[in-house]
Inverse folding.
């Protein structure tokens, strides 16, 4: 939405067709993060319980006022539209009893009378032409064949069909799987709307590009190294399209249907990915192609790390939030975190092969319960079940290694919204700490299963320095390789100890050097802090990950970057044989993103100058100008100097040995008070 300049902040009413994760997802958190003050949700029952469940990991949702209008209320009316909600109930099935479908949205225009203070009433008909009730369109969802007959028999819907009491709708929007669309009953029901009604189909077979910026940057990175940066693909199912006799249009991103003054489709804003234009733009950058040629050679295919999300906090145009898939071999994989949009990223990366990839996922590791690390989990689980069924493979639950506190959210969602607990077998992350005593026999069995299925010698976790119950992990394979994932953390001695002599360390580097104070406040790491952790660990290679969205295209490089360091991008594919190639990508990357790097360096210089002026003003107030500060460097306060990437080695060690984030926050607060006084 942000990429296409759709104003999320203007949303004040959202109508839901049913209570499922595909329909709701992380929208509420997005609304909160974008500053929407108030929003009303209309639709299925149990939505208030969904709100209660989501608070188990999101907190109190302060800053946004949320209200729920149950589907039983007859209509919603404001100065531009009237919306009627029509529940369509399926046949009673025990497993389906919690699902509802079908909100009918009818949009008309209404006018309000107004009064002058002289008590003269001016009615709309006195000053306006006769009111036009406006065209009608319907939006309905029929998720399975169980709902076809009840929908076809619904009296309120039949009013808008041939021989009905209402004028036929201009448009009917069908959120319907292809299998339901193909049924003769559904086809006949569509035909009853008459020849003037248009039909818009939204389902799994809509092939459209919506993330244009991501396609552009991936096409340009593909020029640098086709193996490390594969092109993105379009996901579509293999089933044939339904043959229909009514006029239909299949949905595309930003496709519009105009209702006034005339009915017409508008495709001027539809997103089209012009790969040739993207490539032409990159090749015209001076010196770019010359720096590309030396970066290509063949390596072993496995293990393979695919970065699905490399940004922090919220999904953005170029970087999605945290998710990595580790393909151990051709038959087994593990997901490391599962932020919102993970399934979509899998579709864009693997295209028509996504079902096979989903079926290979044996385990999922959730590092902590911040929303950007786990709100894609439910959709991945549901899509994995669909893929197994479609490919005719036996269903088996995913082994979920996670902070056990996630069960509060999952249990509430399972009880009130959608049955999902059968999709997982939970291994508490604390049960995999070094030396942990595991007393439950079931947990012991699940840990053995985890190691056997992934062919691992060891799957270990450690507590890291972020929020409460945050973990990093280490995977050691029978063939000898070892990989460590930090999750979100400040520099952490426990992670250094657990990851000794790792082949690959994937470490968060949320902020640039010079923002050590902000890193402490947010319990994250700077780029040089992350590199320092890898060097102390004696890791053979370090991939920096989880960048603040202020570094959408590329983070700032520091003096500590060396031949053992790489930068992660969404859809980047890294094999252990690529470690020698990745540092050689830096020159073409710097050429491709020269303008962005220059802008970031200008912002850094302005920030350092501002810090220097602030420090000097404090010295003037204290009467100590010229004493104790080198004239060539900006002053820093408190532990910021101790965590600086350009500090001596001893300072970096001190950074790793700080007791905890709370202690460092207190020191920062104290240092500010001293400066202010």
């Amino acid at each position: 939405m942000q990429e296409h300049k759709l104003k999320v902040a203007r949303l004040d009413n959202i109508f839901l067709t049913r209570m499922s994760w595909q329909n709701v997802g992380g929208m509420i958190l997005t609304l909160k993060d974008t500053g929407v003050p108030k929003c009303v949700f209309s639709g299925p029952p149990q939505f208030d319980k969904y709100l209660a469940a989501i608070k188990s990991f999101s907190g109190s949702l302060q800053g946004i006022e949320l209200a729920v209008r149950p589907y039983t209320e007859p209509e919603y009316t404001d100065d531009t539209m009237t919306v009627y909600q029509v529940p369509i109930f399926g046949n009673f099935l025990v497993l389906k009893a919690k699902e509802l479908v079908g909100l009918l949205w009818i949009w008309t225009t209404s006018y309000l009378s107004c009064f002058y203070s002289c008590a003269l009433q001016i009615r709309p008909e006195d000053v306006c032409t006769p009111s036009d009730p406006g065209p009608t369109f319907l939006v309905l969802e029929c998720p399975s064949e169980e709902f076809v007959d009840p929908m076809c028999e619904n009296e309120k819907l039949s009013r808008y069909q041939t021989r009905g009491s209402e004028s036929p709708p201009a448009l009917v929007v069908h959120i319907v799987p292809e299998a339901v669309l193909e049924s003769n009953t559904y086809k006949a029901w569509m035909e009853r709307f008459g020849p003037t009604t248009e039909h818009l189909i939204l389902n799994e077979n809509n092939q459209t590009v919506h993330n244009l910026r991501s396609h552009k940057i991936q096409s340009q990175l593909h020029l640098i190294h086709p193996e490390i940066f594969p092109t993105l693909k379009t996901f579509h199912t293999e089933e044939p399209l339904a043959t229909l006799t009514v006029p239909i249009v299949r949905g595309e991103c930003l496709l519009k249907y105009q209702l006034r003054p005339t009915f017409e489709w508008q495709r001027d804003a539809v997103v089209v990915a012009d790969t040739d234009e993207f490539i032409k733009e990159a090749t015209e950058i001076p010196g770019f192609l010359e720096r590309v040629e030396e970066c290509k050679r063949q390596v072993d295919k496995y293990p393979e790390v695919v970065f699905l999300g490399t940004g922090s906090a919220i999904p953005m145009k170029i970087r999605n939030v945290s998710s990595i898939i580790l393909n151990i071999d051709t038959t087994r994989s593990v997901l490391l975190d599962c932020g919102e949009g993970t399934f979509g990223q899998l579709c864009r990366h693997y295209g028509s092969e996504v079902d096979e990839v989903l079926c290979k996922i044996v385990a999922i590791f959730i590092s902590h319960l911040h929303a950007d690390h786990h709100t894609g989990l439910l959709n991945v689980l549901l899509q994995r079940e669909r893929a197994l069924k479609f490919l005719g493979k036996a269903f088996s639950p995913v082994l979920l290694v996670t902070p056990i506190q996630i069960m509060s959210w999952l249990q509430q969602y399972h009880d009130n919204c959608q049955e999902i607990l059968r999709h997982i077998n939970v291994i508490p992350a604390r049960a995999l700490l070094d030396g942990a005593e595991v007393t439950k026999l079931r947990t012991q069995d699940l840990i053995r299963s985890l190691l056997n299925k992934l062919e691992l010698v060891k799957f270990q976790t450690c507590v890291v320095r972020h929020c409460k119950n945050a973990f990093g992990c280490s995977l050691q394979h029978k063939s000898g390789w070892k990989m460590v994932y930090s999750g979100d953390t400040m520099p952490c001695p426990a992670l250094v100890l657990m990851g000794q002599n790792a082949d690959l360390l994937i470490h968060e580097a949320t902020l640039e050097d010079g923002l050590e104070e902000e890193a402490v406040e947010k319990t994250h790491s700077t780029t040089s802090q992350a590199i320092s952790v890898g060097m102390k660990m004696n890791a053979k290679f370090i991939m920096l990950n989880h960048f603040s969205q202020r570094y959408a295209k590329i983070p700032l490089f520091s003096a500590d970057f060396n031949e053992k360091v790489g930068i992660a991008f969404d859809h980047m594919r890294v094999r252990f044989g690529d470690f020698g190639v990745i540092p050689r990508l830096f020159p073409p990357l710097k050429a491709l993103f020269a303008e962005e790097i220059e802008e970031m360096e200008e912002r850094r210089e302005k920030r350092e100058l501002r810090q220097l002026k602030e420090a000097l003003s404090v010295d003037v107030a204290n009467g100590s100008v010229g004493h104790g500060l080198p004239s060539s460097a900006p002053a820093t306060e408190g532990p910021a100097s101790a965590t600086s990437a350009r500090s001596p080695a001893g300072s970096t060690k001190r950074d790793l040995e700080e007791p905890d984030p709370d202690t460092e926050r207190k020191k920062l607060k104290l240092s500010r008070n001293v400066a202010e006084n």
The chain has a mean pLDDT of 84. The domain at 283-592 is CATH 3.60.15.10 (Metallo-beta-lactamase; Chain A). The longest helix spans residues 594-622.
